[in-house]
Target: Aspartokinase
Amino acid sequence: MQQAINVAKFGGTSVANYDAIKNCASIVINKQNTRVVVVSAAAGVTNELVLLANTALRTEQITEVVEKIRVIEFSILNSLKDPSEVEDKLFSLLEELDTIARHEELNFRDDLKDELMSMGERMSSLLVAAILREMDCPAINFDVRKILRTDSKFTQAAPDIQAIRLLAGQLLRPEIDGAVVVTQGFVGADEQGRTTTLGRGGSDFTAALLAEALGADTCEIWTDVIGVYTTDPRITDKARPLPELSFEEAAEMATFGAKVLHPATMEPALRQNINVFVGSSKEPEKGGTWIKQSCEHEPPFRALTRRREQVLVTVKTPKMMYAQGFLERVFKIIAKNKLSVDLVTTSEIAVSFTLDNPANSISERINKETLTELSTICEVNVEEGLDVVTVVGNNMHSSAGVSSKVFAAISDFNLRMICFGANVHNLSFVVSDKDSADVVRVLHQALFE
Ligand code: ASP
Ligand code: MG
Model:
C-alpha cells in the first residue's frame, strides 16, 4: 500500500531565524509522512522585495534594502553547524537579487518584479533544507518552478492544475521516497519558464496545490497562531481557537478577511478532499484547527471576520431606457476589468456593490479605471472608509432566529448595506471603518461568549 503523504507549509515567521526553523525541522522529522515541505520567505523579506520592485529608489537606498535582506539571511546561514555547505549558493542568490534590484526597468516590468520577489522563498528553502540535514534528516532543496506551472499573469499568476499534476508526478514524486523535499511557496513559472508569483500570501496556496498534485492525505499550514480563531484576537481577547472548520466555512473566512489562510487554499483541498491543519510551529503541542469536508458540529455561528478598506459603489441609470439590460452593462464592465465584486444589492434602477481596495495595490488602480468607464453609462457614487463584517456559519437561511439574533446585537450601529441569503454560510454587512472593531466585539459577545 502506498504511504500516506503529508505536505507541510511553514510561513514567514516560522522560518524567520535559525531557532524558529529548528522548530519547523522537528515538526517535519516527527512525522514520517511529511515528504514535502513548502516554505515562505523569512519574515519581512518579501516586504523588502516588494518595496524594491515598486518604488523608484536611489542607488544608496537600494543598497540599504538589499543589506537588510542580507542580514536576515546571513544570520541564519551563520548559525548553521556547517555554513560552507550552502554558502556559495546563498551568495549567488543574493548576487542575483542585487542585480535585479538595480535593473533599470524593474519598476515597469512585472516579469522582473516576479523574478525578484521569488528570491525570498528561494533563499529560505535552501537554508531550511540545510537545517533539516544538519538534524540528520535527508532533505533536498527542489526548484518549484520545474512543476508549478502558471499562466503569464505576473504578480498574480493562476496555476495550471493539469500541468502541475503531470509535472509533479514526473519530477517531484520520484524524489519524495528518498528525502524530504523542501521547496518554495508563492513561486511558479509560465510555459516559457519565466518566473511568476501567485500573489501575496500565496505559499499556502502552493502547499495545497502540491498536496492535490501528489494526492496527499493532509496538508499542514504552520504559522504563528494556534489555529483559526473565532475572530481576529487583535480585535478581542475573547477570541478562541476553533478545533474544526468545514472547507466552505474556511473559504468564506479567508475571502472575507481572516488573515490566517490565503483565500485560494481551500480550492485544491476541496477538489481532492485533503484535510488541512493550521497550527503554530512555535507551539505544536497546543494543537490547531482541522479543516475538512464535514465537521462533527455545524453551528449556525462559527466565526466573525472583518475585511478592511472596502469601497462601496452605487450605480444608477439616469434614464429608464437603460432599465432593461442595465445590470448586464454594469457587470460586463466589471468583468472586462477582471474585478471581483464581493457583495451586491440591487433595486429597479440602481445597484450597489463592494470592491476590495487595499491602498497601493493593483486593485486600487483598476478600480479607478473601472469607475471611469462605468460613469459613461450611468451615475456613479463611491463611498470609502468602509469595512465589511461577516458572520460565518451554517444553514443560516433556514435556522430560525439567526438574523434576528445578529441584528438585535448590533442595533446601535448604522449598517450601510446588508447581504444575506445567497450563501448559507455568510451574513455580511458594510459598516463604517470607525465602527467595525466594535461591531465585531459586540457580535462576538452575543454569539460566542
Ligand atoms: N512570501 C510571500 C508573501 O509574503 C508569500 C507567503 O509568505 O505566503 O506574501
Ligand atoms: Mg502567509
User: Anything to note?
Assistant: Residues 59-77 form the longest helix (19 residues). The pocket of aspartic acid (ligand 1) is lined by residues 11-12, 40-41, 46, 120, 185-186, 200-203 (CB under 6 Å).
